[in-house]
Protein backbone atom coordinates (compact mmCIF):
# COMPACT_ATOMS: atom_id res chain seq x y z
CA UNK A 1 0.00 0.00 0.00
CA UNK A 2 2.80 2.44 0.87
CA UNK A 3 4.23 2.16 -2.64
CA UNK A 4 0.93 3.35 -4.15
CA UNK A 5 1.56 6.86 -2.80
CA UNK A 6 5.30 6.96 -3.51
CA UNK A 7 6.59 5.89 -0.11
CA UNK A 8 9.58 3.54 0.01
CA UNK A 9 8.33 1.80 3.15
CA UNK A 10 5.45 1.93 5.63
CA UNK A 11 7.74 3.65 8.16
CA UNK A 12 7.36 6.86 6.12
CA UNK A 13 3.62 6.91 6.84
CA UNK A 14 3.04 8.96 9.99
CA UNK A 15 0.37 10.40 12.29
CA UNK A 16 -1.87 7.34 12.21
CA UNK A 17 -5.26 7.89 13.83
CA UNK A 18 -8.13 5.44 14.08
CA UNK A 19 -11.38 6.91 12.71
CA UNK A 20 -14.90 5.67 12.19
CA UNK A 21 -15.21 3.24 9.30
CA UNK A 22 -18.84 2.33 9.82
CA UNK A 23 -20.13 -0.94 11.23
CA UNK A 24 -18.17 -3.29 8.96
CA UNK A 25 -14.81 -1.59 8.36
CA UNK A 26 -11.78 -0.57 10.36
CA UNK A 27 -10.40 2.78 9.22
CA UNK A 28 -7.45 5.06 9.79
CA UNK A 29 -6.13 8.35 8.56
CA UNK A 30 -2.43 9.06 8.20
CA UNK A 31 0.04 11.41 6.55
CA UNK A 32 2.79 11.00 4.02
CA UNK A 33 4.91 14.12 3.77
CA UNK A 34 2.42 16.98 3.44
CA UNK A 35 -0.53 14.91 2.27
CA UNK A 36 -3.37 13.26 4.19
CA UNK A 37 -4.80 9.84 3.37
CA UNK A 38 -7.66 7.63 4.51
CA UNK A 39 -7.61 3.83 4.41
CA UNK A 40 -10.20 1.29 5.45
CA UNK A 41 -9.99 -2.48 5.81
CA UNK A 42 -12.43 -5.37 6.02
CA UNK A 43 -12.49 -9.15 5.69
CA UNK A 44 -11.89 -10.33 2.14
CA UNK A 45 -13.82 -13.58 2.53
CA UNK A 46 -16.83 -11.92 4.13
CA UNK A 47 -17.15 -9.00 1.71
CA UNK A 48 -15.61 -10.09 -1.60
CA UNK A 49 -15.20 -7.30 -4.11
CA UNK A 50 -16.68 -4.65 -1.82
CA UNK A 51 -13.92 -2.08 -2.14
CA UNK A 52 -13.49 -2.68 -5.86
CA UNK A 53 -17.21 -1.95 -6.26
CA UNK A 54 -16.99 1.13 -4.04
CA UNK A 55 -14.07 2.46 -6.06
CA UNK A 56 -16.06 1.92 -9.25
CA UNK A 57 -19.03 3.79 -7.79
CA UNK A 58 -16.91 6.72 -6.63
CA UNK A 59 -15.32 7.01 -10.05
CA UNK A 60 -18.73 6.98 -11.74
CA UNK A 61 -19.90 9.81 -9.49
CA UNK A 62 -16.71 11.74 -10.10
CA UNK A 63 -17.11 11.35 -13.87
CA UNK A 64 -20.60 12.84 -13.49
CA UNK A 65 -19.21 15.95 -11.79
CA UNK A 66 -19.69 14.92 -8.15
CA UNK A 67 -16.88 15.61 -5.71
CA UNK A 68 -15.79 12.45 -3.92
CA UNK A 69 -12.70 11.37 -1.99
CA UNK A 70 -10.07 10.58 -4.60
CA UNK A 71 -9.51 6.83 -4.99
CA UNK A 72 -5.82 5.97 -5.05
CA UNK A 73 -5.89 2.19 -4.95
CA UNK A 74 -7.56 -0.90 -3.54
CA UNK A 75 -6.07 -4.29 -2.87
CA UNK A 76 -5.66 -7.13 -0.43
CA UNK A 77 -3.22 -8.15 2.27
CA UNK A 78 -3.64 -11.58 3.81
CA UNK A 79 -7.22 -12.02 4.98
CA UNK A 80 -8.03 -8.32 4.54
CA UNK A 81 -8.92 -6.03 1.67
CA UNK A 82 -8.30 -2.30 1.73
CA UNK A 83 -9.31 0.91 -0.02
CA UNK A 84 -6.92 3.87 -0.03
CA UNK A 85 -8.28 7.38 -0.61
CA UNK A 86 -7.25 10.97 -0.24
CA UNK A 87 -8.28 12.44 3.09
CA UNK A 88 -11.17 14.90 3.03
CA UNK A 89 -10.34 17.92 5.19
CA UNK A 90 -13.61 19.07 6.72
CA UNK A 91 -14.63 22.70 6.78
CA UNK A 92 -17.57 24.79 7.86
CA UNK A 93 -20.64 24.46 5.68
CA UNK A 94 -21.14 27.23 3.17
CA UNK A 95 -24.40 29.16 3.36
CA UNK A 96 -25.44 27.64 0.02
CA UNK A 97 -24.35 24.10 0.89
CA UNK A 98 -27.86 22.63 0.50
CA UNK A 99 -28.59 24.49 -2.73
CA UNK A 100 -25.27 23.34 -4.15
CA UNK A 101 -26.10 19.77 -3.15
CA UNK A 102 -29.51 19.94 -4.83
CA UNK A 103 -28.07 21.21 -8.09
CA UNK A 104 -25.43 18.48 -8.07
CA UNK A 105 -28.01 15.76 -7.45
CA UNK A 106 -30.19 17.03 -10.28
CA UNK A 107 -27.18 17.06 -12.59
CA UNK A 108 -26.25 13.52 -11.52
CA UNK A 109 -29.75 12.26 -12.27
CA UNK A 110 -29.53 13.60 -15.83
CA UNK A 111 -26.90 10.93 -16.53
CA UNK A 112 -28.76 7.99 -18.04
CA UNK A 113 -28.12 4.54 -19.51
CA UNK A 114 -29.76 1.96 -21.75
CA UNK A 115 -31.42 0.19 -18.84
CA UNK A 116 -31.91 -0.01 -15.10
CA UNK A 117 -29.12 -1.48 -13.02
CA UNK A 118 -26.45 -1.31 -15.73
CA UNK A 119 -23.41 -1.36 -13.41
CA UNK A 120 -21.48 -4.22 -11.78
CA UNK A 121 -23.07 -5.75 -8.70
CA UNK A 122 -22.03 -3.95 -5.53
CA UNK A 123 -23.02 -3.61 -1.87
CA UNK A 124 -25.57 -1.70 0.20
CA UNK A 125 -24.12 -1.66 3.69
CA UNK A 126 -23.01 -5.24 4.30
CA UNK A 127 -25.57 -6.74 1.89
CA UNK A 128 -24.82 -7.68 -1.72
CA UNK A 129 -26.74 -5.56 -4.23
CA UNK A 130 -27.58 -6.95 -7.67
CA UNK A 131 -27.59 -4.56 -10.62
CA UNK A 132 -28.24 -6.73 -13.67
CA UNK A 133 -29.50 -4.71 -16.61
CA UNK A 134 -33.30 -4.51 -16.88
CA UNK A 135 -35.51 -2.69 -19.38
CA UNK A 136 -38.29 -1.70 -16.98
CA UNK A 137 -37.95 -0.06 -13.57
CA UNK A 138 -40.91 -1.94 -12.14
CA UNK A 139 -39.29 -5.29 -13.01
CA UNK A 140 -35.97 -4.16 -11.58
CA UNK A 141 -37.58 -2.90 -8.37
CA UNK A 142 -39.39 -6.18 -7.90
CA UNK A 143 -36.73 -8.69 -8.97
CA UNK A 144 -33.52 -7.05 -7.78
CA UNK A 145 -34.56 -4.87 -4.89
CA UNK A 146 -37.64 -6.07 -2.99
CA UNK A 147 -38.25 -9.76 -3.69
CA UNK A 148 -34.80 -11.22 -2.83
CA UNK A 149 -34.50 -9.34 0.47
CA UNK A 150 -38.12 -10.00 1.36
CA UNK A 151 -37.56 -13.75 1.00
CA UNK A 152 -34.42 -13.50 3.12
CA UNK A 153 -36.21 -11.51 5.83
CA UNK A 154 -39.05 -14.05 5.96
CA UNK A 155 -36.63 -16.98 6.11
CA UNK A 156 -34.82 -15.29 9.01
CA UNK A 157 -38.21 -14.77 10.72
CA UNK A 158 -37.70 -11.02 10.68
CA UNK A 159 -40.98 -10.63 8.78
CA UNK A 160 -44.16 -12.76 8.94
CA UNK A 161 -44.91 -15.15 6.05
CA UNK A 162 -47.95 -13.12 4.95
CA UNK A 163 -45.59 -10.29 3.95
CA UNK A 164 -45.05 -12.24 0.73
CA UNK A 165 -48.78 -12.02 -0.05
CA UNK A 166 -48.79 -8.27 0.52
CA UNK A 167 -45.75 -7.97 -1.74
CA UNK A 168 -47.44 -9.88 -4.56
CA UNK A 169 -50.37 -7.46 -4.42
CA UNK A 170 -47.91 -4.57 -4.53
CA UNK A 171 -45.99 -6.05 -7.46
CA UNK A 172 -49.18 -6.47 -9.50
CA UNK A 173 -49.83 -2.73 -9.22
CA UNK A 174 -46.33 -1.27 -9.64
CA UNK A 175 -47.02 -0.05 -13.17
CA UNK A 176 -49.74 2.21 -11.76
CA UNK A 177 -47.62 3.46 -8.87
CA UNK A 178 -44.38 4.43 -10.63
CA UNK A 179 -44.34 6.96 -13.49
CA UNK A 180 -42.31 6.20 -16.59
CA UNK A 181 -38.92 7.95 -16.43
CA UNK A 182 -35.51 7.23 -17.96
CA UNK A 183 -32.88 5.46 -15.84
CA UNK A 184 -30.89 7.90 -13.70
CA UNK A 185 -27.46 7.44 -12.17
CA UNK A 186 -28.06 7.20 -8.41
CA UNK A 187 -25.83 7.54 -5.38
CA UNK A 188 -27.90 4.68 -4.00
CA UNK A 189 -27.35 5.16 -0.26
CA UNK A 190 -28.11 8.83 0.21
CA UNK A 191 -28.53 9.33 3.94
CA UNK A 192 -27.00 12.29 5.75
CA UNK A 193 -24.00 10.30 6.97
CA UNK A 194 -22.83 9.91 3.39
CA UNK A 195 -22.42 13.64 2.85
CA UNK A 196 -19.31 15.38 4.10
CA UNK A 197 -18.36 19.04 4.05
CA UNK A 198 -15.17 19.85 2.21
CA UNK A 199 -12.59 22.41 3.26
CA UNK A 200 -14.33 24.97 1.04
CA UNK A 201 -17.69 24.34 2.73
CA UNK A 202 -19.26 22.44 -0.18
CA UNK A 203 -20.53 18.82 -0.35
CA UNK A 204 -18.32 15.78 -0.71
CA UNK A 205 -20.14 12.49 -1.32
CA UNK A 206 -18.97 9.19 0.16
CA UNK A 207 -19.91 5.49 0.38
CA UNK A 208 -22.12 5.14 -2.71
CA UNK A 209 -24.11 2.08 -3.78
CA UNK A 210 -24.55 3.25 -7.36
CA UNK A 211 -26.86 1.93 -10.02
CA UNK A 212 -29.13 3.35 -12.71
CA UNK A 213 -32.59 3.56 -11.25
CA UNK A 214 -35.69 5.65 -10.67
CA UNK A 215 -34.35 9.00 -9.49
CA UNK A 216 -36.87 9.43 -6.68
CA UNK A 217 -35.11 6.58 -4.85
CA UNK A 218 -32.32 9.02 -3.94
CA UNK A 219 -34.72 11.82 -3.09
CA UNK A 220 -36.93 9.66 -0.90
CA UNK A 221 -34.01 8.30 1.09
CA UNK A 222 -32.98 11.80 2.15
CA UNK A 223 -36.25 11.88 4.13
CA UNK A 224 -35.94 8.46 5.74
CA UNK A 225 -33.55 9.34 8.56
CA UNK A 226 -33.52 13.15 8.46
CA UNK A 227 -30.47 15.39 8.50
CA UNK A 228 -31.23 17.26 5.28
CA UNK A 229 -32.35 20.86 5.02
CA UNK A 230 -35.19 20.87 2.49
CA UNK A 231 -33.73 23.88 0.68
CA UNK A 232 -31.84 21.42 -1.48
CA UNK A 233 -35.13 20.10 -2.91
CA UNK A 234 -36.08 23.54 -4.19
CA UNK A 235 -32.74 23.83 -5.96
CA UNK A 236 -33.16 20.33 -7.39
CA UNK A 237 -36.65 21.03 -8.74
CA UNK A 238 -35.48 24.20 -10.48
CA UNK A 239 -33.13 22.12 -12.60
CA UNK A 240 -35.04 18.84 -12.83
CA UNK A 241 -38.75 19.16 -11.95
CA UNK A 242 -40.39 16.12 -10.38
CA UNK A 243 -43.24 14.14 -11.89
CA UNK A 244 -46.51 14.97 -10.08
CA UNK A 245 -47.27 12.64 -7.19
CA UNK A 246 -43.78 12.53 -5.69
CA UNK A 247 -45.03 12.98 -2.13
CA UNK A 248 -47.26 9.92 -2.50
CA UNK A 249 -44.30 7.84 -3.73
CA UNK A 250 -41.76 8.69 -1.02
CA UNK A 251 -42.58 5.73 1.21
CA UNK A 252 -42.95 3.46 -1.81
CA UNK A 253 -39.36 4.23 -2.78
CA UNK A 254 -38.23 3.80 0.81
CA UNK A 255 -39.49 0.22 0.93
CA UNK A 256 -36.06 -0.83 -0.31
CA UNK A 257 -33.83 0.93 2.27
CA UNK A 258 -36.30 -0.04 4.99
CA UNK A 259 -36.06 -3.67 3.91
CA UNK A 260 -32.26 -3.44 3.93
CA UNK A 261 -32.47 -2.26 7.53
CA UNK A 262 -34.91 -5.05 8.40
CA UNK A 263 -32.40 -7.66 7.23
CA UNK A 264 -29.45 -5.94 8.88
CA UNK A 265 -31.01 -4.82 12.16
CA UNK A 266 -34.57 -6.16 12.53
CA UNK A 267 -36.48 -4.50 15.36
CA UNK A 268 -38.69 -1.50 14.64
CA UNK A 269 -37.65 -1.38 11.00
CA UNK A 270 -39.84 -4.44 10.40
CA UNK A 271 -42.89 -2.60 11.73
CA UNK A 272 -42.18 0.42 9.51
CA UNK A 273 -41.65 -1.76 6.46
CA UNK A 274 -44.85 -3.74 7.02
CA UNK A 275 -46.88 -0.58 7.52
CA UNK A 276 -45.68 0.81 4.18
CA UNK A 277 -46.01 -2.53 2.40
CA UNK A 278 -49.61 -2.97 3.55
CA UNK A 279 -50.48 0.56 2.50
CA UNK A 280 -49.14 0.22 -1.05
CA UNK A 281 -50.60 -3.27 -1.41
CA UNK A 282 -54.03 -1.84 -0.64
CA UNK A 283 -54.36 -3.47 2.80
CA UNK A 284 -55.47 -0.94 5.41
Task: List its traits.
alpha+beta; two-stranded antiparallel ribbon; Phosphorylase Kinase, domain 1; globular; 10 helices; Aminoglycoside 3'-phosphotransferase, Chain: A, domain 2
The helix content, as a percent range, equals 25-40%
The value of Rg in angstroms is 20 Å
Mean pLDDT: 93
Query: How are helices and strands ordered from N to C?
Result: EEEHEEHEEHHHEEEEHHHHH
Q: So what's the overall shape?
A: globular
Terminal CA distance reads 56 Å
- What fold name stands as the CATH topology of the largest domain? Aminoglycoside 3'-phosphotransferase, Chain: A, domain 2
Structural class: alpha+beta
Number of strands: 11
Unreliable spans are none
The CATH superfamily label of the largest domain reads Aminoglycoside phosphotransferase (APH), C-terminal lobe
Strand content: 15-25%
Q: How many structurally independent domains?
A: 2
For the biggest sheet, the summary is: 5 strands, antiparallel
- The number of distinct helices, counting runs of at least 4 residues, comes to 10
Quaternary organization: single chain
How are the strands of the largest sheet arranged?
A: 1-2-3-5-4
Explain what you see.
By secondary structure, the chain is α+β, with helices and mostly antiparallel strands. It has two domains: 85 residues, Phosphorylase Kinase, domain 1, CATH 3.30.200.20; 185 residues, Aminoglycoside 3'-phosphotransferase, Chain: A, domain 2. The chain has ten helices and eleven strands. The strands form four sheets. Strands 1-2-3-5-4 form a five-stranded antiparallel sheet, covered by helices on one side. The chain has a two-stranded antiparallel sheet with strand order 6-7. It has a two-stranded antiparallel sheet with strand order 8-11. Strand 9 and strand 10 form a beta hairpin. The radius of gyration is 20 Å and the shape is globular. It starts with 13 loop residues before the first strand and ends with a helix.
Amino acid sequence: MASRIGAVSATELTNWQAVSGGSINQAWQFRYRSHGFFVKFNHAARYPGMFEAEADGLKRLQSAGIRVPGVIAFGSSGAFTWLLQRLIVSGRRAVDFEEHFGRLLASLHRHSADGFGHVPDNWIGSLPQRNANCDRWTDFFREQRIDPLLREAISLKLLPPDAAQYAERLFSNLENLFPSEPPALLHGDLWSGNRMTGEDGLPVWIDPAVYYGFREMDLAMTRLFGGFDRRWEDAYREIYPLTPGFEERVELCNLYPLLVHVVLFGGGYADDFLRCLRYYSGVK
